[in-house]
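Note to self: the last two entries modelled the partners one at a time, which told us nothing about the interface. This time every component goes in together.
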Amino acid sequence: MRPARQKDNPMPNQETRILDNIIASRRALLVGGGAAVAALAIPGIAKAASTVVGFGDTDILNFALNLEYLEANFYYLAAFGTNISTANTLYPTGAMVQGITGTGTQGTVTVKASPKVPFANLAVASYAVETAIEEGKHVAFLRSALGSAAVAQPQIDLTGGTGFGATAAFNTLASAALIGPAFDPFASDANFLIGAYIFEDVGVTAYHGAAPLFTTGTTGKTYLAAAAGILAVEAYHAGLVRTTINALDPINSNGYQTLTQKVSTLRAALSLAALSTAPNPDDYGLTPGTISVSLAGGASVPRTQIVDADPTNVIAFSRNTTQVLNIVTGGGATTAGAKATGVFFPNGLNGLFS
Amino acid sequence: VNILSELNKRGVNRRSFLAGVGAIGAASALAGCSSNGAMAAATTTYTDTDILNFALNLEYLEAEFYLHAATGSGLQASDAGSNPGTVTGGTQVTGLSSAQQNILNEIAYDEQEHVRFLRSALGSAAVSRPAIDITNSFNALASAAGIASTFNPYANFDAFAVGAFIFEDVGVTAYAGAAPLISTAGIAAGYLAAAAGIMAVEAYHAAYVRTYLTAQNIANSSYLYLGYANKVSALRATLGGGNETALTVPTGTVPLTATAIATPSSIVAATTANAIAFARDTDQVLHIVYGTANGAGVKSGGFFPSGLNGNISVTQS
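The predicted structure of the combined assembly is written out below.
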């Protein structure tokens, strides 16, 4: 494939100038973000996973399964108040107890008491239920596709808020993102949406990065088709979350859009720490129309940022497993080859990519 | 292991699609070599260029629709190729709030850039923009869907959302169907990663449209446009082999008590069994954009009055 357009048009055009401006402004933010990253459990630069050789389709699917365990538990807890392996009479059609056994070390989910979100907005409440059902199905699908090769659910930390210490997963991230010392994603509609925001765009980039790694025989193609379909669903979820935050606070008067920018800035910093050649940034929060673009050759007009994608070609970002590990563990491994632990996965992931 | 059997079925479906193409290729080859039965059957398989050009046709359509809705103008001449077809209709949506205009601007920009990206990736192999109809097509589609005899997607933001609904889920299914067809060399060249990344963007757009329509109907129970979108979805299912998830209007009493939940929304379009987004083969996509039901040999209609440009333009089944 030929490289991006600016290589064909070396003269800076409107868009590349805008891109430069965006990058420059994000770099300014990164000064703060970078400092905060240093305060994380481990400001590490993990290259371990990128040097993994001899991996197969099963390893890729198991990496995805770890992430789906995390997402499904978050949404089950928000929507129903229980984790995915616990029966609950509230489960609607499509939600059910999920298996969590498998290879590796099985863990539990730590979370505050009574995590069911007291939703006040019917739309947000219904989105939580839909997403919980779908992420639960992804867990079931991957476990079924992997069969006896499926990894167990690892230890998962979803604690956060003033009742927890600085090392609680969401408190650690909130501090690093300069949001504040404590953050409880189960406290309200808005907090739930910000919590969901943390996960969904990461899921998109992870599946995107994994897609070209599958083997090219019939089995690999079958897995690729499934992974592409799950990638699309993660993007639907991300679009849903970003659309709803944008609708609740279109001109950022409540600061919700600023929160998304802080999360995105942190994710980009963690991603860059894992892969110095990654696009910088590789993550964009919502903006209330502060980016301008030229349409149909006309004058610049403001646009929103519902889509999290590179501003030039508008192709969603891709992250390798090390970048994703760095984000979900808040810094990755201290040394290459060591297991990445921290934040949502206090004991690390199960499987080869860990 | 139902999952694997479903996966295999999907794989088989795609193989039978290719087998169908092969059979037709063979038929024409045999016709061209008289009675020489020894001639090997020609197998028509699509190259990566064919697949990317197929996507480019769809991006031309989306870009023209959104750019006209946002600005009243379409793609610049420099983005339409050396021999572009004409664009019929398309007007700016007026009376928008700034928040609505900004959304429209974003989607229009995204699709414009997808056109530019694919044209750049394809280089001299890029097809020109085919003839595109973004006015009469909506009337015919609305009539076929049972909405009304005419439908103006540029009348207001809600009508525009229904117009956008027509395209976005189709874009997702088209890219999802195309991804596994890309060659091993194409994967190494980055085509698969690009297609997957564009698919994700289409899914973000689709989610925007579906979330908007759902939220509007929650706020106003007599809202008409979610119902229109579902009629479109039903028509797409008829033309495009099912592969649809209708929108729903969630219910529940808020604030929720500790023992109550809302009914689920239906923002994601995906299989009920596994919550995996649908994939359509090129025939199913062609039948939708041509607005013409199943069967081989359909080569134009609907949004593309002269058909698509490139090697994937005529339905094989």
